[in-house]
Amino acid sequence: MRDTLQTSSEIAFEYARWFVNRRAFTLQSDRPHPGTGRHYYYRPRSREDRSSITAWDIQRHLNGQMTLGLYAINPATQRVKWMAIDADYRRAVEDLLRLQYGLGQTGIQAALEQSRRGGHLWIFFEQPVLARHARIFVYQLADKLNVNVKGPGGIDGIELFPKQDHLDAGQFGNAIRGPLGIHRAAGRRYWFYGAPYDLESQMAYLRGLRRVTERQLLELTADVPSVLDAQATWVNRTFDPNRPHFRILDFVHPERKVGRNWITQCPSCAAAGRDRSKDNLAISVEEPLKYRCWSGCTREQIRQALGVATPAVA
Ligand SMILES: [Zn+2]
Questions:
Q1: Residue 224: which pLDDT band, with cuts at 50, 70 and 90?
Q2: Ligand 1 centre and the CA of 266: distance in Å?
Q3: What is d(CA 60, CA 186) in angstroms, rounded to the nearest whole number?
Q4: Fold assignment, 9-220
Q5: pLDDT tens string 60-74
Q6: How many whole angstroms from 168 Cα to the centroid of ligand 1?
Q7: Model's pTM, two decimal places?
Q8: What tens digit of pLDDT does each residue of 139-155 get?
């Protein structure tokens, strides 16, 4: 039996003030996908006049009658009301607790929510802040605390919501399950650890969290004059052989940024005497663990060219 409630519209409006930053939303399917068995999220179609979130949707979400997915970035402002750090690997909760503690050291109260395979750590802003700033801040903190960011090739690590610094017109980014709803597959709620497991106590807990101000956020990233410089801290980091996974930026030092990528010579192409124009390798600025060679070298070839053995897959 699902636990269903009758949520007041006041609660729904309060929830919306904290969590809803744009009208678009997603819904989790009630039925598992016949192929994968997963309950996917989909965006209701506008022709059904169901593309804009309402207080009633939030009430139904909190009542447990349907489950919302929420987008972080408002594309008109590129700002977010919250940042959620998602982790769903073996040591996920350990990493999230480390981040929560690290945030606490800087005066930030972050709320840890359970999830199916790990957790979501939420940071709330008093006024919406630029997605870019929030992401720089969390990336830096993760780096400082040695918490991995999810990368290519199945590297375990945290994922940030928003996943983007910026949305172009017509884009939505990635939605995350709205807290305090009922997961359609698990048939249960995932509560915040910080309060008793009932809606009223949970709302009171969230209400009592100190919100991060934009000024505070800017102060915390004050040693970072620009996004480019923030990303350069990744580029200039020294190689640490004890680091558990491969970071391309420990090996190559791109000087050019084109759009969303760092561009430099592909080590594998270089070894074969190609890529003299030094522009085959693209490394995502937003997610520096992602890279590719435009002439088609595989990751394996690139790593071999760098003399880094690929760890055996268990
Ligand atoms: Zn190549």
A1: low
A2: 5
A3: 17
A4: DNA primase, PRIM domain (3.90.920)
A5: 999 999 999 999 999
A6: 30
A7: 0.71
A8: 989 988 999 988 766 67
Which amino acid, 71?
Y
Q: Among 122-131, 216-225, 230-239, which is the least confidently predicted range?
A: 230-239
| Distance set, CA 205 to CA 82, 209, 220, 284 (Å) | 16, 7, 25, 37
Expressed in angstroms and rounded, the spacing between residue 106 Cα and the centre of ligand 1 is 42
Map out the domains of the chain as residue ranges. 9-220, 227-305
Q: 194: which strand partners?
A: none
Rg (CA), the chain: 21
- Residue-wise pLDDT tens digits, 108-118: 999 999 998 89
Find out whether 295 and 307 touch, Cβ atoms under 8 Å: no
Q: 142 CA distance to ligand 1 centroid (A)?
A: 30
Going from the Cα of 157 to the center of ligand 1, the distance in angstroms, rounded, reads 26
Cα of 136 vs centre of ligand 1, distance in Å, is 29
Length of the chain: 314
Q: Which two tokens stand for residue 203?
A: 């709302």
- Which residue, 211, 260, 209, 202, is CA-closest to 231? 260
d(CA 154, CA 57): 35
